[in-house]
Known about the structure:
mainly alpha
Amino acid sequence: MDKTYSFDEFMDIIRKLRSKEGCPWDREQTHESLKQCLIEECYEVIEAINNKDRSNLCEELGDLLLQVAMHSVIAEENDEFTIEDVVTEESNKMIHRHPHVFGHGEAKSSEEVLRIWEDIKSKERGTPDPENELRRIPKSLPANIRAAKVQKKAVKLGLELGGVNRAVKDVEEAIERLKGAIISGENTGISDEFGSIMLNMIKLSLVLQINAENSLTNATNEFINRLIDILYPLEGDGSNLYDFANTEQEALWRN
């Protein structure tokens, strides 16, 4: 397949898939039914970037573009907006928020660019509304990322996160409260205090200036590698972890 397609031709393909002569599955899709697909495609793009697989990245970006096109065509059919509206709105936003490129402003560093970006966003929204600022952070974000965004926003609103010692102590206090909830057997309390530990861990990551999401991802990868190291020789012996008591499993993990 040597043909090169233009963006307009691509959009016509999507419209054909949604037409009466198109694909039954594509015709059935709605903004709501495609939500999970959009999330999965975003993560597959990230995976391709992490793997430094440029060929796969090209493919996954295409799949992500398909999601944008599908939502735009669905909206077009419902007289909500078109793909041209999507492109135009984003183009206007980029031009407006980059006066140092398209206007007469100046920015010599990434920090200055971010400051300009935030200043323009603030002016667009008008008088600051703390409640709105916090509630507009999407609930659909992964919990770790949302917790970090909320706390970063809280800092911009004047909240002091404190130093490392204070952040560590908050985690320790949350753990002690969890222990108490476990002893009392209160399921709601256990869930609440576990959430408090997680939230305070995110605060600690911000104080330490590390990315909690990346740290957890790396730790999970290390866990997978270690587990494979343990399981591989067991498979050769025809055994598995079920054959070992807890203390024996701990010994295998430490070796």
